[in-house]
Amino acid sequence: MIVSGLSLKTFAIIVGSAAALRAVQFCLDLRRLLRSIDYLPGYRTVFSSTTVFGNLLPRIPLLALGRAHSWRLKHAPFAERGLDIISAVSFWPKPVGNIYIADVQAIKDIIWSRGLFPKPLSQYAVLKVFGSNIVASEGDEWKRHHKVVARAFSERNNRLVWDATTQIMLELFDTVWIGKDEVVVDHAVDLTLQIGLFVIGAAGFGRHISWKDDAVIPPGHQLTFKDALLTTSHDLFIKLLVPRWAMGFTKRFRRARLESDELQRYLTEMIQERKGFQLKEDDEDLLSSLLAANNDENLWKDEVKLNDSELIGNIFILIIDETVSHSLAFALALLALYPDKQEELYQQIKRVLPDGRIPTYDDIPSLSYSSAVFNEALRMFPPVTNVPKSSAENTTFTITDVNGTQRTLRFTTTVRYSSTQSRSAIAA
Ligand code: HEM
Protein backbone atom coordinates (compact mmCIF):
# COMPACT_ATOMS: atom_id res chain seq x y z
CA MET A 1 0.00 0.00 0.00
CA ILE A 2 2.78 2.37 0.95
CA VAL A 3 4.60 1.56 -2.29
CA SER A 4 1.51 2.20 -4.38
CA GLY A 5 0.79 5.36 -2.34
CA LEU A 6 4.26 6.63 -3.04
CA SER A 7 4.05 5.88 -6.71
CA LEU A 8 0.71 7.65 -6.87
CA LYS A 9 2.30 10.66 -5.23
CA THR A 10 5.26 10.50 -7.59
CA PHE A 11 2.87 10.19 -10.49
CA ALA A 12 0.92 13.23 -9.27
CA ILE A 13 4.15 15.23 -8.91
CA ILE A 14 5.28 14.31 -12.43
CA VAL A 15 1.90 15.18 -13.95
CA GLY A 16 1.65 18.37 -11.91
CA SER A 17 5.18 19.46 -12.86
CA ALA A 18 4.58 18.69 -16.53
CA ALA A 19 1.34 20.69 -16.46
CA ALA A 20 3.06 23.58 -14.66
CA LEU A 21 5.91 23.54 -17.18
CA ARG A 22 3.41 23.46 -20.02
CA ALA A 23 1.52 26.39 -18.50
CA VAL A 24 4.73 28.41 -18.09
CA GLN A 25 5.76 27.60 -21.66
CA PHE A 26 2.29 28.64 -22.87
CA CYS A 27 2.49 31.96 -21.02
CA LEU A 28 5.98 32.67 -22.41
CA ASP A 29 4.84 31.81 -25.95
CA LEU A 30 1.79 34.00 -25.55
CA ARG A 31 3.81 36.93 -24.21
CA ARG A 32 6.31 36.57 -27.08
CA LEU A 33 3.46 36.48 -29.58
CA LEU A 34 1.66 39.52 -28.15
CA ARG A 35 4.93 41.46 -28.08
CA SER A 36 5.64 40.46 -31.70
CA ILE A 37 2.32 41.95 -32.82
CA ASP A 38 2.91 45.14 -30.85
CA TYR A 39 0.09 44.25 -28.37
CA LEU A 40 -2.40 45.11 -31.09
CA PRO A 41 -5.97 44.76 -29.72
CA GLY A 42 -8.46 42.46 -31.40
CA TYR A 43 -10.13 39.07 -31.15
CA ARG A 44 -9.03 36.54 -28.52
CA THR A 45 -10.38 33.02 -29.01
CA VAL A 46 -9.43 29.44 -28.19
CA PHE A 47 -9.64 28.22 -31.81
CA SER A 48 -8.17 29.93 -34.84
CA SER A 49 -10.43 30.75 -37.80
CA THR A 50 -7.57 29.80 -40.13
CA THR A 51 -7.92 26.11 -39.21
CA VAL A 52 -10.60 23.89 -40.74
CA PHE A 53 -12.00 23.03 -37.30
CA GLY A 54 -12.11 26.67 -36.18
CA ASN A 55 -13.88 27.57 -39.38
CA LEU A 56 -16.56 24.91 -38.97
CA LEU A 57 -17.62 26.18 -35.54
CA PRO A 58 -20.38 28.79 -35.21
CA ARG A 59 -19.58 32.10 -33.52
CA ILE A 60 -19.05 31.39 -29.81
CA PRO A 61 -17.56 34.28 -27.81
CA LEU A 62 -14.03 33.49 -26.58
CA LEU A 63 -14.14 30.07 -28.31
CA ALA A 64 -14.41 30.71 -32.07
CA LEU A 65 -14.95 33.63 -34.42
CA GLY A 66 -17.37 31.53 -36.46
CA ARG A 67 -17.74 30.94 -40.15
CA ALA A 68 -17.44 33.93 -42.46
CA HIS A 69 -17.06 36.31 -39.52
CA SER A 70 -15.48 39.02 -41.72
CA TRP A 71 -18.41 38.85 -44.10
CA ARG A 72 -20.99 39.09 -41.31
CA LEU A 73 -19.32 41.64 -39.07
CA LYS A 74 -17.87 43.74 -41.92
CA HIS A 75 -16.14 46.85 -40.61
CA ALA A 76 -17.68 46.72 -37.10
CA PRO A 77 -14.70 45.05 -35.30
CA PHE A 78 -12.38 47.76 -36.70
CA ALA A 79 -14.81 50.58 -35.86
CA GLU A 80 -15.16 49.25 -32.29
CA ARG A 81 -11.41 49.54 -31.79
CA GLY A 82 -11.03 52.80 -33.71
CA LEU A 83 -8.27 51.40 -35.93
CA ASP A 84 -8.28 49.76 -39.37
CA ILE A 85 -5.92 47.05 -38.23
CA ILE A 86 -6.70 44.49 -35.53
CA SER A 87 -5.27 41.21 -34.34
CA ALA A 88 -6.78 37.76 -33.86
CA VAL A 89 -4.96 35.64 -31.31
CA SER A 90 -5.95 32.02 -30.75
CA PHE A 91 -4.65 29.74 -28.03
CA TRP A 92 -5.16 26.13 -29.10
CA PRO A 93 -3.13 24.03 -29.68
CA LYS A 94 -0.60 26.87 -29.26
CA PRO A 95 -0.75 30.67 -29.39
CA VAL A 96 -1.13 31.86 -33.00
CA GLY A 97 -1.54 35.43 -34.23
CA ASN A 98 -3.22 36.86 -37.31
CA ILE A 99 -3.53 40.47 -38.35
CA TYR A 100 -6.72 41.72 -40.02
CA ILE A 101 -6.35 44.86 -42.10
CA ALA A 102 -8.99 47.19 -43.50
CA ASP A 103 -6.65 50.13 -44.18
CA VAL A 104 -6.64 50.70 -47.95
CA GLN A 105 -3.01 51.86 -48.23
CA ALA A 106 -1.71 48.99 -46.08
CA ILE A 107 -3.72 46.52 -48.19
CA LYS A 108 -2.25 47.98 -51.39
CA ASP A 109 1.28 47.72 -49.93
CA ILE A 110 0.71 44.06 -49.09
CA ILE A 111 -0.92 43.13 -52.41
CA TRP A 112 1.75 44.88 -54.48
CA SER A 113 4.74 43.56 -52.53
CA ARG A 114 4.33 39.95 -53.58
CA GLY A 115 7.88 39.02 -52.50
CA LEU A 116 7.51 40.45 -48.98
CA PHE A 117 4.02 39.13 -48.40
CA PRO A 118 3.66 35.73 -50.06
CA LYS A 119 0.46 33.68 -49.84
CA PRO A 120 0.46 31.06 -47.07
CA LEU A 121 0.22 28.25 -49.63
CA SER A 122 -1.13 25.67 -47.17
CA GLN A 123 -4.37 27.68 -47.08
CA TYR A 124 -4.63 27.53 -50.87
CA ALA A 125 -3.70 23.83 -51.29
CA VAL A 126 -7.32 22.78 -51.58
CA LEU A 127 -7.61 24.79 -54.81
CA LYS A 128 -5.09 22.49 -56.48
CA VAL A 129 -7.53 19.57 -56.74
CA PHE A 130 -7.91 20.27 -60.45
CA GLY A 131 -4.23 20.99 -61.04
CA SER A 132 -1.64 23.59 -60.05
CA ASN A 133 -2.76 27.13 -60.95
CA ILE A 134 -2.08 30.85 -60.59
CA VAL A 135 -4.18 31.32 -57.46
CA ALA A 136 -2.64 28.45 -55.48
CA SER A 137 1.01 29.20 -56.31
CA GLU A 138 3.73 31.70 -55.44
CA GLY A 139 7.27 32.62 -56.53
CA ASP A 140 8.67 31.10 -59.72
CA GLU A 141 5.72 28.76 -60.11
CA TRP A 142 3.32 31.72 -59.94
CA LYS A 143 5.40 33.56 -62.59
CA ARG A 144 5.00 30.62 -65.02
CA HIS A 145 1.23 30.60 -64.51
CA HIS A 146 1.02 34.38 -64.69
CA LYS A 147 2.76 34.51 -68.09
CA VAL A 148 0.01 32.39 -69.58
CA VAL A 149 -3.05 33.59 -67.65
CA ALA A 150 -2.23 37.32 -68.06
CA ARG A 151 -2.66 36.92 -71.84
CA ALA A 152 -6.32 36.10 -71.36
CA PHE A 153 -7.04 39.46 -69.75
CA SER A 154 -6.83 41.77 -72.73
CA GLU A 155 -9.04 44.59 -73.99
CA ARG A 156 -10.10 42.31 -76.85
CA ASN A 157 -11.11 39.59 -74.43
CA ASN A 158 -13.12 42.11 -72.38
CA ARG A 159 -15.07 42.95 -75.53
CA LEU A 160 -15.67 39.27 -76.11
CA VAL A 161 -17.05 38.92 -72.57
CA TRP A 162 -19.34 41.92 -73.13
CA ASP A 163 -20.65 40.60 -76.46
CA ALA A 164 -21.17 37.10 -75.04
CA THR A 165 -23.06 38.56 -72.07
CA THR A 166 -25.43 40.66 -74.20
CA GLN A 167 -26.13 37.69 -76.46
CA ILE A 168 -26.85 35.41 -73.48
CA MET A 169 -29.19 37.97 -71.86
CA LEU A 170 -31.05 38.57 -75.14
CA GLU A 171 -31.50 34.85 -75.55
CA LEU A 172 -32.88 34.63 -71.99
CA PHE A 173 -35.46 37.38 -72.77
CA ASP A 174 -36.35 35.85 -76.16
CA THR A 175 -36.71 32.25 -75.04
CA VAL A 176 -37.21 31.46 -71.34
CA TRP A 177 -38.86 34.77 -70.40
CA ILE A 178 -40.68 35.50 -73.66
CA GLY A 179 -44.29 36.67 -73.31
CA LYS A 180 -44.08 36.92 -69.48
CA ASP A 181 -45.11 40.17 -67.79
CA GLU A 182 -43.51 39.09 -64.56
CA VAL A 183 -40.70 36.68 -63.78
CA VAL A 184 -40.29 35.33 -60.24
CA VAL A 185 -36.84 34.09 -59.30
CA ASP A 186 -36.76 32.48 -55.84
CA HIS A 187 -33.02 32.48 -55.44
CA ALA A 188 -31.16 35.05 -57.54
CA VAL A 189 -27.98 32.94 -57.62
CA ASP A 190 -29.84 30.19 -59.54
CA LEU A 191 -30.11 32.72 -62.35
CA THR A 192 -26.82 34.60 -62.01
CA LEU A 193 -24.77 31.41 -61.72
CA GLN A 194 -26.14 30.26 -65.07
CA ILE A 195 -25.45 33.65 -66.62
CA GLY A 196 -21.85 33.54 -65.30
CA LEU A 197 -21.21 30.02 -66.56
CA PHE A 198 -22.83 30.59 -69.96
CA VAL A 199 -20.64 33.67 -70.42
CA ILE A 200 -17.54 31.70 -69.54
CA GLY A 201 -18.68 28.92 -71.92
CA ALA A 202 -18.87 31.42 -74.78
CA ALA A 203 -16.04 33.85 -73.94
CA GLY A 204 -13.90 31.15 -72.33
CA PHE A 205 -14.22 28.33 -74.82
CA GLY A 206 -16.10 29.69 -77.83
CA ARG A 207 -18.95 27.28 -76.93
CA HIS A 208 -22.45 28.65 -77.11
CA ILE A 209 -24.64 27.18 -74.36
CA SER A 210 -28.39 27.34 -74.82
CA TRP A 211 -30.82 28.24 -72.02
CA LYS A 212 -33.05 25.42 -73.26
CA ASP A 213 -32.36 21.82 -72.29
CA ASP A 214 -32.01 20.70 -75.88
CA ALA A 215 -28.37 19.61 -76.04
CA VAL A 216 -27.48 16.04 -76.96
CA ILE A 217 -24.88 14.18 -74.89
CA PRO A 218 -21.92 13.60 -77.23
CA PRO A 219 -20.47 10.09 -77.63
CA GLY A 220 -17.97 9.14 -74.90
CA HIS A 221 -19.69 11.40 -72.34
CA GLN A 222 -22.37 10.89 -69.70
CA LEU A 223 -23.31 14.58 -69.32
CA THR A 224 -23.62 17.53 -71.67
CA PHE A 225 -20.95 20.24 -71.40
CA LYS A 226 -23.58 22.56 -69.95
CA ASP A 227 -24.57 20.09 -67.20
CA ALA A 228 -20.95 19.27 -66.41
CA LEU A 229 -20.22 22.99 -66.05
CA LEU A 230 -23.31 23.82 -63.97
CA THR A 231 -23.24 20.81 -61.68
CA THR A 232 -19.48 20.84 -61.04
CA SER A 233 -19.80 24.42 -59.92
CA HIS A 234 -22.81 23.58 -57.72
CA ASP A 235 -21.15 20.55 -56.06
CA LEU A 236 -17.67 22.02 -55.89
CA PHE A 237 -17.58 21.99 -52.09
CA ILE A 238 -17.85 18.16 -52.12
CA LYS A 239 -14.91 17.89 -54.48
CA LEU A 240 -12.89 20.28 -52.32
CA LEU A 241 -13.72 18.75 -48.94
CA VAL A 242 -13.98 15.00 -49.59
CA PRO A 243 -10.74 13.11 -50.32
CA ARG A 244 -10.57 11.25 -53.63
CA TRP A 245 -10.61 7.81 -51.94
CA ALA A 246 -13.92 8.62 -50.19
CA MET A 247 -15.71 9.91 -53.29
CA GLY A 248 -17.34 6.49 -53.92
CA PHE A 249 -18.97 6.31 -50.47
CA THR A 250 -22.37 7.94 -51.16
CA LYS A 251 -24.56 8.51 -54.21
CA ARG A 252 -24.09 12.28 -53.86
CA PHE A 253 -20.30 11.95 -53.73
CA ARG A 254 -20.30 9.61 -56.76
CA ARG A 255 -22.42 12.11 -58.68
CA ALA A 256 -20.02 14.95 -57.78
CA ARG A 257 -17.09 12.81 -58.93
CA LEU A 258 -18.80 12.06 -62.24
CA GLU A 259 -19.54 15.74 -62.82
CA SER A 260 -16.01 17.00 -62.25
CA ASP A 261 -14.51 14.03 -64.17
CA GLU A 262 -16.79 14.87 -67.09
CA LEU A 263 -15.80 18.53 -67.05
CA GLN A 264 -12.15 17.52 -66.88
CA ARG A 265 -12.72 15.20 -69.89
CA TYR A 266 -14.33 18.03 -71.89
CA LEU A 267 -11.47 20.39 -71.07
CA THR A 268 -8.83 17.79 -71.99
CA GLU A 269 -10.60 17.23 -75.33
CA MET A 270 -10.72 20.96 -76.02
CA ILE A 271 -7.01 21.29 -75.26
CA GLN A 272 -6.19 18.34 -77.52
CA GLU A 273 -8.37 19.77 -80.34
CA ARG A 274 -6.51 23.08 -80.22
CA LYS A 275 -2.95 21.80 -79.78
CA GLY A 276 -0.56 23.64 -82.11
CA PHE A 277 -3.19 26.38 -82.35
CA GLN A 278 -2.24 29.63 -84.12
CA LEU A 279 -4.11 32.63 -82.73
CA LYS A 280 -6.40 34.27 -85.28
CA GLU A 281 -7.52 37.90 -85.11
CA ASP A 282 -11.23 37.12 -84.66
CA ASP A 283 -10.90 34.00 -82.55
CA GLU A 284 -9.57 34.94 -79.14
CA ASP A 285 -11.50 33.13 -76.46
CA LEU A 286 -9.86 32.52 -73.11
CA LEU A 287 -8.75 28.96 -73.84
CA SER A 288 -7.27 29.97 -77.21
CA SER A 289 -5.38 32.82 -75.51
CA LEU A 290 -4.00 30.49 -72.83
CA LEU A 291 -2.90 27.89 -75.36
CA ALA A 292 -1.41 30.46 -77.73
CA ALA A 293 0.61 31.99 -74.86
CA ASN A 294 1.76 28.55 -73.78
CA ASN A 295 2.87 27.76 -77.34
CA ASP A 296 4.71 31.07 -77.75
CA GLU A 297 8.39 30.02 -77.72
CA ASN A 298 9.56 33.64 -77.21
CA LEU A 299 7.78 33.68 -73.87
CA TRP A 300 9.55 30.70 -72.38
CA LYS A 301 13.26 30.68 -73.31
CA ASP A 302 14.77 28.51 -70.49
CA GLU A 303 11.58 27.97 -68.54
CA VAL A 304 9.27 24.96 -68.67
CA LYS A 305 5.90 25.57 -70.31
CA LEU A 306 2.69 24.67 -68.51
CA ASN A 307 1.69 21.04 -68.92
CA ASP A 308 -1.89 19.93 -69.61
CA SER A 309 -2.64 19.42 -65.91
CA GLU A 310 -1.50 22.98 -65.13
CA LEU A 311 -3.51 24.37 -68.05
CA ILE A 312 -6.61 22.57 -66.79
CA GLY A 313 -5.90 23.78 -63.23
CA ASN A 314 -5.94 27.38 -64.43
CA ILE A 315 -9.01 26.93 -66.59
CA PHE A 316 -10.90 25.39 -63.66
CA ILE A 317 -9.93 28.30 -61.44
CA LEU A 318 -11.14 30.78 -64.04
CA ILE A 319 -14.43 29.06 -64.81
CA ILE A 320 -15.43 27.80 -61.38
CA ASP A 321 -15.19 31.31 -60.02
CA GLU A 322 -18.50 32.31 -58.53
CA THR A 323 -17.45 35.79 -57.47
CA VAL A 324 -19.25 37.50 -60.34
CA SER A 325 -22.46 35.44 -60.01
CA HIS A 326 -22.77 36.21 -56.30
CA SER A 327 -21.95 39.90 -56.73
CA LEU A 328 -24.58 40.15 -59.45
CA ALA A 329 -27.13 38.40 -57.23
CA PHE A 330 -26.47 40.87 -54.39
CA ALA A 331 -26.69 43.79 -56.83
CA LEU A 332 -30.13 42.58 -57.98
CA ALA A 333 -31.27 42.08 -54.38
CA LEU A 334 -30.11 45.57 -53.38
CA LEU A 335 -31.91 47.10 -56.37
CA ALA A 336 -35.09 45.30 -55.27
CA LEU A 337 -34.66 46.66 -51.73
CA TYR A 338 -34.01 50.21 -52.92
CA PRO A 339 -36.57 50.91 -55.71
CA ASP A 340 -35.62 54.62 -55.85
CA LYS A 341 -32.04 53.65 -56.77
CA GLN A 342 -33.43 51.15 -59.26
CA GLU A 343 -35.42 53.95 -60.88
CA GLU A 344 -32.32 56.21 -61.08
CA LEU A 345 -30.42 53.36 -62.74
CA TYR A 346 -33.27 52.77 -65.19
CA GLN A 347 -33.45 56.47 -66.07
CA GLN A 348 -29.73 56.64 -66.80
CA ILE A 349 -29.90 53.56 -69.03
CA LYS A 350 -32.83 55.17 -70.90
CA ARG A 351 -30.84 58.39 -71.34
CA VAL A 352 -27.79 56.53 -72.72
CA LEU A 353 -29.87 54.24 -74.94
CA PRO A 354 -32.90 56.40 -75.84
CA ASP A 355 -33.78 54.38 -78.93
CA GLY A 356 -33.74 51.08 -77.01
CA ARG A 357 -30.69 49.86 -78.91
CA ILE A 358 -28.52 47.09 -77.47
CA PRO A 359 -25.63 48.54 -75.40
CA THR A 360 -22.12 48.03 -76.76
CA TYR A 361 -18.76 47.75 -74.98
CA ASP A 362 -18.06 51.40 -75.85
CA ASP A 363 -21.16 52.48 -73.88
CA ILE A 364 -19.58 51.36 -70.58
CA PRO A 365 -18.17 54.79 -69.57
CA SER A 366 -21.63 56.35 -70.09
CA LEU A 367 -23.32 53.71 -67.96
CA SER A 368 -21.69 55.03 -64.80
CA TYR A 369 -24.70 54.34 -62.57
CA SER A 370 -24.56 50.63 -63.46
CA SER A 371 -20.90 50.53 -62.44
CA ALA A 372 -21.72 52.39 -59.23
CA VAL A 373 -24.46 49.87 -58.35
CA PHE A 374 -22.08 46.98 -58.93
CA ASN A 375 -19.28 48.64 -56.91
CA GLU A 376 -21.65 49.33 -54.02
CA ALA A 377 -22.88 45.71 -54.04
CA LEU A 378 -19.23 44.59 -53.97
CA ARG A 379 -18.48 46.92 -51.07
CA MET A 380 -21.50 45.84 -49.03
CA PHE A 381 -21.35 42.12 -49.83
CA PRO A 382 -17.88 41.28 -51.08
CA PRO A 383 -17.59 37.74 -52.47
CA VAL A 384 -13.99 37.59 -51.20
CA THR A 385 -13.64 38.99 -47.70
CA ASN A 386 -10.17 37.83 -46.78
CA VAL A 387 -7.04 37.55 -48.86
CA PRO A 388 -4.53 35.64 -46.71
CA LYS A 389 -0.89 36.68 -46.93
CA SER A 390 2.09 35.99 -44.70
CA SER A 391 5.37 37.70 -43.95
CA ALA A 392 8.53 36.16 -42.61
CA GLU A 393 10.22 39.52 -41.99
CA ASN A 394 9.74 42.38 -39.57
CA THR A 395 7.11 44.76 -40.91
CA THR A 396 6.06 48.29 -40.05
CA PHE A 397 2.68 49.83 -40.85
CA THR A 398 1.68 53.44 -40.25
CA ILE A 399 -2.07 53.66 -39.81
CA THR A 400 -4.26 56.64 -38.95
CA ASP A 401 -6.72 55.88 -36.16
CA VAL A 402 -10.27 57.12 -35.77
CA ASN A 403 -9.05 60.33 -34.03
CA GLY A 404 -6.75 61.18 -36.93
CA THR A 405 -3.60 60.22 -34.97
CA GLN A 406 -0.95 58.30 -36.88
CA ARG A 407 0.13 55.07 -35.25
CA THR A 408 3.18 53.08 -36.25
CA LEU A 409 2.93 49.37 -35.58
CA ARG A 410 5.90 47.02 -35.68
CA PHE A 411 5.38 43.32 -36.18
CA THR A 412 8.44 41.22 -35.53
CA THR A 413 7.47 37.71 -36.44
CA THR A 414 6.07 35.51 -39.14
CA VAL A 415 2.63 37.04 -39.32
CA ARG A 416 -0.41 36.10 -41.34
CA TYR A 417 -2.38 38.98 -42.71
CA SER A 418 -5.96 38.92 -43.87
CA SER A 419 -7.00 42.03 -45.66
CA THR A 420 -10.62 42.98 -45.67
CA GLN A 421 -11.97 46.16 -47.16
CA SER A 422 -15.61 45.75 -46.33
CA ARG A 423 -16.80 48.76 -44.40
CA SER A 424 -20.37 48.61 -43.34
CA ALA A 425 -22.63 51.39 -44.48
CA ILE A 426 -25.85 49.43 -44.36
CA ALA A 427 -28.90 51.58 -43.91
CA ALA A 428 -30.71 50.27 -40.84
C1 HEM B 1 -16.48 40.41 -58.43
C2 HEM B 1 -15.61 39.65 -59.01
C3 HEM B 1 -14.25 39.28 -58.48
C4 HEM B 1 -13.66 39.54 -57.29
C5 HEM B 1 -14.23 40.29 -56.09
C6 HEM B 1 -12.33 38.98 -57.33
C7 HEM B 1 -11.43 39.04 -56.28
C8 HEM B 1 -10.14 38.53 -56.33
C9 HEM B 1 -9.19 38.59 -55.25
C10 HEM B 1 -9.44 39.23 -53.90
C11 HEM B 1 -8.05 37.99 -55.66
C12 HEM B 1 -6.77 37.78 -54.84
C13 HEM B 1 -5.77 38.89 -55.11
C14 HEM B 1 -4.41 38.60 -54.48
O1 HEM B 1 -4.15 37.50 -53.98
O2 HEM B 1 -3.57 39.48 -54.51
C15 HEM B 1 -8.28 37.55 -57.03
C16 HEM B 1 -7.36 36.91 -57.79
C17 HEM B 1 -7.60 36.47 -59.06
N1 HEM B 1 -8.76 36.59 -59.78
FE1 HEM B 1 -10.43 37.48 -59.18
N2 HEM B 1 -12.16 38.38 -58.54
C18 HEM B 1 -13.29 38.54 -59.28
C19 HEM B 1 -13.54 38.07 -60.55
C20 HEM B 1 -12.65 37.36 -61.31
C21 HEM B 1 -12.91 36.85 -62.62
C22 HEM B 1 -14.22 36.98 -63.38
C23 HEM B 1 -11.78 36.24 -63.04
C24 HEM B 1 -11.52 35.53 -64.33
C25 HEM B 1 -12.36 34.86 -65.03
C26 HEM B 1 -10.79 36.38 -61.97
C27 HEM B 1 -9.51 35.91 -62.03
C28 HEM B 1 -8.58 36.02 -61.02
C29 HEM B 1 -7.23 35.51 -61.10
C30 HEM B 1 -6.60 34.82 -62.30
C31 HEM B 1 -6.60 35.80 -59.88
C32 HEM B 1 -5.19 35.44 -59.44
C33 HEM B 1 -4.28 36.63 -59.62
C34 HEM B 1 -2.86 36.31 -59.21
O3 HEM B 1 -2.63 35.57 -58.26
O4 HEM B 1 -1.99 36.84 -59.86
N3 HEM B 1 -11.35 37.07 -60.96
N4 HEM B 1 -9.57 37.89 -57.39
Q: How would you sum up the global shape?
A: globular
CATH fold type of the domain at 143-321:
Cytochrome p450
What is the second-level CATH architecture of the domain at 143-321? Orthogonal Bundle
- Beta-strand percent range: 5-15%
Helical proportion, percent range: 40-55%
Please tell me the overall pLDDT. Answer: 87
| Structural class by SSE content | alpha/beta
Q: What's the CATH C level of the domain at 143-321?
A: Mainly Alpha
Order of strands, main sheet, comes to 1-2-3-7-4
What is the gyration radius calculated from CA atoms? 26 Å
Task: Please mark out the parts with pLDDT under 50 across 5 or more consecutive residues, or reply none.
Answer: 421-428
Number of beta-strand segments: 7
The CATH superfamily title of the domain at 143-321: Cytochrome P450
Give, in order, the helices and strands: HEHHHEEHHHHHHHHHHHHHEEEE
The number of helical runs is: 17
Oligomer status: single chain
> Kindly, what is the distance between the CA atoms of the first and last residues, rounded to a whole number of angstroms?
72 Å
Largest sheet: 5 strands, mixed
**Ligand roster:** protoporphyrin IX containing FE
Pathway: Secondary metabolite biosynthesis; terpenoid biosynthesis
Main location: membrane
Subcellular location: Membrane
Keywords: Heme, Iron, Membrane, Metal-binding, Monooxygenase, Oxidoreductase, Transmembrane, Transmembrane helix
